[in-house]
Each structure stands twice: as C-alpha cells, then as structure tokens.
Amino acid sequence: MSIVSDAPTPSKVELTNEEIFDAHIDGKLSVELTSPLENQRDLSIAYTPGVAQVSRAIAADETLAARYTWTDRLVVVVSDGTAVLGLGDIGPRASLPVMEGKSALFKKFAGLNSIPLVLDTKDPDEIVETLIRLRPSFGAVNLEDISAPRCFEIEKRVVEALDCPVMHDDQHGTAIVVLAALMGAVKVQNRNIADLRIVVSGAGAAGVACTNILLAAGATDVVVLDSKGIVSRERTELGPIKADLAERTNPAGRHGGLIEALDGADVFVGVSAGTVPEEIVATMADDAIVFALSNPDPEIHPEVASKHVAIVATGRSDFPNQINNVLAFPGVFKGALDAGARRITEGMKLAAAEAILSVVGDELAVDKIVPSPLDPRVAPAVAEAVAAAARAEGVTD
User: Fold this and answer.
1) Which fold has domain 170-397?
2) Secondary structure in 3-state letters for 32-58
3) How far is CA 263 from CA 50, 255, 294, in A?
4) Residue 278 in contact with residue 256, Cβ under 8 Å?
5) 150 CB-contact burial (10 Å; exposed 0-12 / middle 13-18 / buried 19+)
6) Options 3.40.50.10380, 1.20.1300.10, 3.30.565.10, 3.40.50.11720; which CATH number does 73-164 get?
7) How many CA atoms lie within 13 A of 22 on its CB side?
C-alpha cells in the first residue's frame, strides 16, 4: 500500500533568458575589504610600510598566516570543466559561471570566502601538481565537475598530497544528502536501512559515492547499475572502481538490467541521467522509495512515480523533497575548517547526513524527508556535527 501525500507541490519558478544573463554580467563574485582604506594612515597599515611587519612575522613563523591572512578560511572551487552539470565536457572557461555560483553558495550559507579556480588541463598529474604548488594560498579544496573515472584518482591523490580538507562534491555532497533523505524516508515509514533492497542507477562519481555511504550507514543489499546492466563479479570488463563495487554489492548475485534490478526493490536512487519506464517502477515493492535525481529531467516524473511508490524525491526545486548538495557542502567545509581538520573522513560525512535530517525535526513527513535547501538552520547544524566528528576522530590540528 503506497502512502501518497496530498500536500501541494512547490510552484515552478519561471525564468527568462534576460534576467539570467543580466544576473551574470561581470560575474557573481566580488572582493570586500575587512579593513578600512580611507586615508593615508589606513593605506600605511594595510599596505606599505605596515604590511611588511606582518610579512616578517609570518616568515619567522608560518603558522601566523592562519591568523593574519584569509588563507585558513578560503575554499578554492577547482574544476577542469569536463563534467559540468548536464552539459558534459564544456571546458574550463564555460564552467566558470558554475564555479562562481558554487563560491557564492559558500559565502551565503556558510560565510566562507571562496574563489573559483578552473584549470586548462585534463591531466591528473598537472591538476594535482597545480594544487600542491598553490597550497599556501587556500585552506580547503572543493573539487567540482571533473569527469569519472579521473575524478576518483584526482581526489585520492589531492587528499594524500595536501594537509587540508579536500572533497569532490559531485561524489560526497550528493551522497551525504541522499543518505540524509533516505534516513528521513525510513524514519517516516518506521523501517531500517539494513532491511532495504536498494538499487543505485549509475556507477559514476555520484553513484559510487552514494553506494559507499549507504553501505557505511548499514545497508546490506545494494545493487549498482551501469550502462551495461547490474555490476556483478561475473562481469570481466569492469575497471578497478566498478570491480571493487562488485565485490561489496549485489549479495544475491543478481544479473540483468533495470528490469531485473527493480523487481521487488525497496529503493531506487537514480544518478545516471537515464530514464525509468513507469511499468518498471510499478514492479517495485510496496511502500517503495524513489529518488529520481537527474536534472533537469528526472529518470521518472514524480507525479508518475507517486502512483506506484510511497515517497519520491528529485533534484528539482519545484517538487517536494529536493535533494540538493547545498544542504551538505557549505556546512561540511565550515565544520572541517572550524575544527582545523586535515581531511574529511567518512565519519564526518555520516555526521553531516544525520545533522541534515535533525533539522527537519517534527516536520518530518512523506513530502518533507529533508529540509529546504534555503533553510538557514542547516549549515550551522552540519558544521557543528562535522567539527565534533573531526575532533572525535583525531584528524584536527
């Protein structure tokens, strides 16, 4: 028996090309002063000769840079423009408006300074080396819109090379919010994640990270689909990332494709930009959960899915239960920086998911399994939880 909400859906926001392009004229970011520059005295303090004293002090003790520059609280949003939104490989310059937007979200929701850094190279060696050389200029790295499977190698190597928080948001931001939403859904239904048969459609950046965090949260039966069907041990053409997934998922040894995977499944997580026919969704278990996250077109329209399942979420703002990365990344980075964390751990990500869900509180319902992305309570709650987890795990300075 499906549980279908009668609550009205949010209205769709209508946008015109003129207002979109007007809002992007000269970019979306600017630098603001934190010290006055009104007279000769101000100039002498902020710049020469006064600034030389600060530079001498930092030269003698490099740790003072954290106090007397913005470095320690600066996030760089780094992309090579190879996997931008639903646009694909459009290059670094075309990706810049997206990275500026990401930096704007850091400022708005977490109060963090952030700058976009787009790199005119697809070579993982060059990307890693560039960030190593630029390390004195920033305090954290948000990797963004880098294509799979290169994104896995690049993130791993950057994490190993730098002594600061690093996260590829397309992977882990998505995974954190998906987990928060699923925890909300099972709480509404009085179920347990460990008892669910979960299907993740997509074995790219988001799909791999979602699978990993679901397993870490206690899921015991996860099936992953790629363009060729169910990822299983019997497939001999799998690369290392998918081969590893095959070893840790699909415990029943299922074979086939979407039809076989969804038959009787409790949860569908779509992160593959594919489509799911209504008749296949209809074969899912009673009280099933569908997260159709492809944008702008979900794998199945929410109104169609709702005829057959109990809870539906999408990545869109004009339907209930929007699964949006902005619920996670501002607070995750703020919490990591607040705690002086050297890296972002799995425990910190799990803490972030739990904090997101905690904001919903008594408002939890089938049409509100996560808070609104605009809820001002989210980032502080996530930051506090992430900082506490970082200290508990001993990854702070």
Assistant:
1) Rossmann fold (3.40.50)
2) CCCCCCCCHHHHHHHCCCHHHHHHHHH
3) 70, 12, 21
4) no
5) middle
6) 3.40.50.10380
7) 5
| pLDDT value, residue 12 | 62
Conformation bin of residue 382: beta by default, left when phi > 0, alpha when psi is -120 to 50: alpha
Token readout for 41 is 């005295």
Distance CA 203, CA 185 (A): 23
Which pairing describes strands 140-143 and 197-201: parallel, antiparallel, or unpaired?
Answer: unpaired
What was the pLDDT predicted at 11?
55
Q: How far is CA 287 from the centre of its chain?
A: 27
Instruction: Please report the pLDDT score of residue 318 as a whole number.
Output: 86
Tokens encoding 51 = 């600034």
Return the active site residues: 47, 102
And the tokens for 145? 């819109």
Handedness of CA 314, 88, 168, 204 (dihedral sign): positive
Low-confidence stretches of the chain (pLDDT < 70) are 1-13
Query: What is the rounded CA–CA span in Å between residue 170 and residue 80?
Result: 13
Q: Where do you find CATH 3.40.50.10380 in the chain? A: 73-164
User: Which strand (E) or helix (H) includes residue 359?
Assistant: helix 346-360
Residues of the chain with CATH 3.40.50.720: 170-397
- How far apart, in whole angstroms, are the C-alpha atoms of residue 136 and residue 128? 14
DSSP E strands in the chain: the ranges are 74-79, 113-118, 140-143, 166-168, 197-201, 221-226, 229-230, 267-270, 289-292, 311-314
User: Can you give the C-alpha Rg of the chain in angstroms?
Assistant: 22
Query: For the residues of 279-310, what is the DSSP string, one character each?
Result: HHHTTSPTT-EEEE--SSS-SS-HHHHTTT-S
pLDDT for residue 4: 38
* Confidence at residue 13, expressed as pLDDT on a 0 to 100 scale: 67
